[in-house]
Amino acid sequence: MTHFLLNGEPVDIDVEEDTPLLWVLRDNIGLTGTKFGCGIGLCGACSVHLDGETVRSCQTPVGDVSGKQVTTIEGLTREDLHPVQQAWVEGNVPQCGYCQSGQIMSAAALLAENPDPSDADIDLAMSGNICRCGTYGRIRSAIHRAAELMSEQTDVVQHFDPDDPLVRRVS
After folding, report:
1. Which of 6, 43, 119, 168 is 20 to 30 A distant from 56 in Cα terms?
2. How confident is the prediction for the chain on average, in pLDDT?
């Protein structure tokens, strides 16, 4: 039995510990946002976060996630859209869309670590994600836009004053 947190919720799964996390997510748990691409960890379509770090779920045995936090595209945010997802929509990034959940997960991890990445930072962080349609320019632009959106959210939180007389109180 393997125990871990999946998108903030506890999971107990009884599968062989060498079963790839990808197949546990898709086949056993039913979360199909994480995609199978190459099966050897090179394309990035299966990217998820393991304790905040991007990993290839096709190459991560489920036994290795015991006691850890796994975040999939379905759990990236509990709100409407994560800023990366919002930027992807605004920038009309995907063509076929197959690689996009892995791209988004890698971009979100980059921005969590580096809130204002340069083009070179983005290229390096995203180099492990392959887009067959070649939307790399739109991906880079969307990551810059997501960084702006995240900065705007931070500014709002930092400037919120609960004692401001204009703040509406709900009881």
Report:
1. 119
2. 91
